[in-house]
Amino acid sequence: MENHNAGNGVVAQWRDVVGRLAAEVGGGLGLMPTPLAQALHAAAQPQDGTAAPEAGQAAPAEPGWSDWWEQRGQLAARAVSAQELARLALDRLARAHAATAACVEVLHDTALAQARRLDQRLAAGEPPGPLAGMPLAHKDLLQRAGRPSGYGMARTAGAGDTATVLRRLDAAGALHLARLHMTELAFDPSGANAMAGDCRNPWASAHIPGGSSSGSAAVVAAGAVHGALGSDTGGSIRIPAALCGVTGLKPTFGLVSRAGAMSLSASLDHLGPIARSARDCALMLQAIAGYDMADAGSIAAVRRDDYAANLDAPLRGVRIGVPQGYFAAGLHPAVQAVIARSLETFRLLGADIREVPDFPYDAVNALAILMIRAEATALYERLLRPDAEPVLGDFTRARLREGVAIPAALYLQAQALRGPLVQRFGQTVLAGVDVLLAPAFALPTPRIEEFASLDERSQFLRGELTRLTRPINYLGLPALALPGGACPVEGEAVELPVGFQLIGRPYSEALLLRLGHAFQKATSWHLRKPSLAQQ
């Protein structure tokens, strides 16, 4: 289905997929579809025997590659000032950008002004906020009042109201250092951008960082900032996190507001954190999660946990499912080894490893492609008109043209299947487990040159980059990408990161982060740093 010359043949394939799935889930003609929010709440309930969180001991400090969790007490203790933290991060950001082209705009004066105000609040004895002084930078699709956004295009979009997630991070005391590279309209999973230039992997500059939140993962991996926000419509947080060796969380649909963010596909868009560790992701999620009436997809009745409260609880009794078939097909030996080793690590930590029933992931992936194409074209078709300013490259234009051929009835049928498929997934695949462990990408990290043209190889790689992540967007489930190993690069003296993903029930972010933190206490993959970060 990953065909960039869509026409009647591809539409016919989509019709077949919709018809087959409608028959499988028992959706009769004319029946009102189950709302996605209702299906998510139903699927959030464990079927049997979910292990309750237990109190745990605080994790010992890890040497070397420290995260914000370790450093956050320094500011409150006045061991360092917010302005010192900002200057250090800005210096690192400049070095990271020189090597990766990850920054669209470094907000030097704005960041220092934020830091100065924070120092003044601390001196006055005011509460600094839970993320006080945390150096962050964000994907260039989040609006900030009075400032432009680029959306990965060759021109700058007008400024709008500040995005809800940025307002919440501001209130938590975080520092906002830069707008970061993204692919055009967040429509490419590689990190390539024909109009604004390609972002490079901080581990090896000839290789892609993944996308579309390319800059977000690159600057975190390079050690420039402690965290960054990204968006995930088909894997755009998890793919670059896996390829750059950092931690990335796609929350449950509706948990984090997207108000003030550029949309690619409103039905599938998610915003979430990328950070050095699972516990830093927990801190960021705590600040940004919650209902927002300004986002039509925000779910009011959502359960909002304390995501950092039980990070150190034991894993005894947690059931991890291992999907086969679709998620096991075509895996490179290095990826297979990472999955096997990660499962063994969790088993030694007390988790129960189980196989799970198969699911029509290929068909779900096809439905997600259909919805992304249709919704993106509805939003940006005007950029294809003959009189439009040339702000997009050939690949993005080709993807937008695909959506023109999609019938409205077919799109609405794909929407109507979401609720029933989420319910079925919860009743079958997740019936006897709490989470799934699956690869995030099946192959070693590709080289940038492989995406230079719209040939068969680049189309195959783009399809592979999202094949294992995009079905989870359609289902609206939370997923956490973690670094789990490395793969040698032929002819180069470097090993590129290999990641995997944990997929949970709706609103199970606290459990996913707990599992991620336990894995990172038992391993050191998240502590590795590229030579760039050691300069």
Can you offer a commentary on this structure?
Residues 41-65 are annotated as: Disordered. It comes from Bordetella genomosp. 2. Pfam families: Amidase. Residues 84-513 form the Amidase domain. GO terms for molecular function: catalytic activity. The protein has helices spanning 8-25, 36-43, 68-76, 82-100, 108-123, 164-171, 214-221, 238-244, 278-288, 333-348, 361-380, 394-404, 408-416, 418-427, 456-467, 470-475, 509-522; strands at 103-106, 135-139, 175-180, 227-231, 247-250, 271-275, 319-322, 352-355, 435-439, 479-488, 495-504. The longest helix is centred in the last third of the chain and has 20 residues, at 361-380. α4 runs antiparallel to α5 (108-123). The protein has 535 residues and is an alpha/beta fold. Strands 1-3-2-4-6-5-10-11-9-7-8 form an 11-stranded mixed β-sheet, sandwiched between helices. It has one domain (17-26, 70-527): Amidase signature (AS) enzymes. β10 and β11 (495-504) form a beta hairpin.
List its traits.
eleven-stranded mixed sheet, Amidase domain-containing protein, 535 residues, Amidase_CS, alpha/beta, catalytic activity, Amidase signature (AS) enzymes, Amidase
Short description:
The protein is an alpha/beta fold. The protein has 17 helices and 11 strands. The protein starts with 7 loop residues before the first helix and ends in a 13-residue tail after the last helix.
